[in-house]
């Protein structure tokens, strides 16, 4: 992928320069060896309203002004050369974007509701600390965490994407702690264009097809301009492979049943590691079709037809009759019968279907004023399998009089004088496995006006809009068991007439039919329908966003070094959500009574719900409003031949939240174009905020019973997990210092930049555990004591509300570097242009302090099981001419560790502690991916293209936690080809 620098506006195109052989060799070596990152200057914006380039780093578009906040731009050409079916995948490759979600992420999840959600995260701070905009406007979130779904954006009309890698709350409001990603559409597109693309991996999966078309035309002497686009894309994803530790889906070889074996702390006085990083891990608490896990019959497994056999534990393990296995570390052995390994039953990449329709109608009242309306309708469907079979980890009890048991086992029970035994099973013989199917439907309407007017001798630009956005998410979970019914169905007895029924009379009267889980045997249709009813968990959410915004900018004064530029504006925003869940998950309440689809059942918990194996959703609702005003000023400081020219940029914003109170944000920055040829300095520091989102404020109450230690006494308490309306905004302080070399005369076509950044976030919203919250209250934290009652004279009235609090802090530090070159091949006697570009982010610190006594801050930088590797690099080398182009790209992630708090050792290990655990291997490999793309101009109106990602088919490295989809490519070699039409 080639990425054009963001230093020039569209009115000032990058000029070609001859490329000499010596220069090419020097730059080629330098770009590959140097770590370089996206940290470009914002483009200067001409004053004329017709072609002002509004750069996301600031609200000001003024002649001669360069933004102090680093901003990277990807153009439509960059996006096209990436040839991804979803523009999200292209942007997420940028080094500063770390921890973004997508089709690879959360595929193991049943309950999160975020499967298939494409959302950006800058600096590894999380998607909810990155503000994503469309034409500088907010977009209705697709989840109660407040994040937008890029799959719902109109992608063919995007002409550029600005990525601001610094705090921008003073200019754009809450959530811009990590930065801003702004999609700019072509509002005046004229003509017709279309794109047809298809692809698949080398394993013949994730087959994908993308169809896009856009049309634009002017009417009434171009006063009325209409733009329409439609898109449809389908990615099949990577299906699960099934039970067992063998090859991954469709022949992938990376998966080898990884796990961490962890010994108790008390056993670590022997000089050996506490944690072992193993492969071919065998969980000894269950197997494929059933395993007795405790008692004198421990180690008896059941296979085809329910025939018992001696289980092979691996590690030369021998069961101890008490649930343990010698030679193994709970719950894993190494090797043995690996047929029941279930981690390979998870979808590696979700299926994703995306449909989008977008229309913009603009009417120019005159040369100075335009009114417009946009309508964006989108639907995104996703599907994933979180796991196969719903494994039961030694948590079942089978009675010895169960008629499904083989006679030999019944006799062994009698011989050993037992009436029951503990049991685990992978439930691999269930005919269908869990399927999670979210559908997100967005309808977004915007009416607005922009233009210019004269006042006080100054021409002022203005824009104002009102947006109404609605996102509906319907989440269905299929093929999942109801735990109380499952437990009743597996507890079978034989009646005197020889029939087999459920033991519980109450269960029998409510329709229970016995389920045989002893070995691989055919399942009763009636039993399956009873434990896996056709209507599974459901969640129906409706999220709305109303925004009214008005902004004015201009240059009211001519000063000694240039014009004073000013931008100011007002904004009102209201966010709201409601969610309704099925009564089996939520519990039967006044607003969710039992329905014909979910008939009443005496076995089920009707007060708190939570009856499903997973996916127990709950009803909830909430809303908040925001009122904001801001002022931004650009003051030219000096301009002379000896000193160069400098600007000071200052912004302030006052915000009032209906729930969180008032917040103030500000930004102070400046740029200095020195008298040294091509050298510019920039610096910015800012105070930014991230307000609590709807989920954190108004999460529905989930109630369970639990025990807690309070002042030396063990209490049974009602545990209430809920939102916290008293949360305050997180407050961040960001600072960036940079130096830019912008095409000096002695190196025409060459540019480079270096930017150092620090970010500290206080009052981070985080969740405490039950005992942690009680301990902090006992230690004197009165704000936490308000969330519990522990000394009630009526013990059943004791409760603890598990809420999120503003306790934690984050501290990030690192730097971004970028170098680029663009020149003509004429010096080598060849046609066309040659482009080199490399971008990288080096993360020095990513420190999290939980704020909990007895813990220490943890270092996340270089933890490759997380989201922030030490180095993330994107480089490209491209050649282009009138007939086509060829691009070679590299994506590199540096080597890392599992945890910076681990102590690696094999012998003579210190005693392991909760803060510093010992491990035998603390290394996680990085990876280099190489991509190759080409385009060919078939005719004036037709461009063919092809792309191969991960050319060498590099596997993702694994840890004891498996593969990290937030960091690595799970697809393998990917082939794509397509045709673009323009008329």
TrEMBL record:
Membrane topology: Multi-pass membrane protein
Sorted UniProt keywords: Cell outer membrane, Membrane, Receptor, Signal, TonB box, Transmembrane, Transmembrane beta strand, Transport
Source taxon at top rank: Bacteria
Subcellular location: Cell outer membrane
Name of one Pfam family that matches: Plug
Signal sequence, renumbered to the chain: 1-39
GO cellular component: cell outer membrane
Domain TonB-dependent receptor plug: 66-180
InterPro entries, sorted: Beta-barrel_TonB, Beta-barrel_TonB_sf, Plug_dom, Plug_dom_sf, TonB-dep_rcpt-like
Keyword Transport: yes
Domain (TonB-dependent receptor-like beta-barrel) ranges: 448-951
Family according to the record: Belongs to the TonB-dependent receptor family.
Record's protein name: TonB-dependent receptor
Organism: Massilia cellulosiltytica
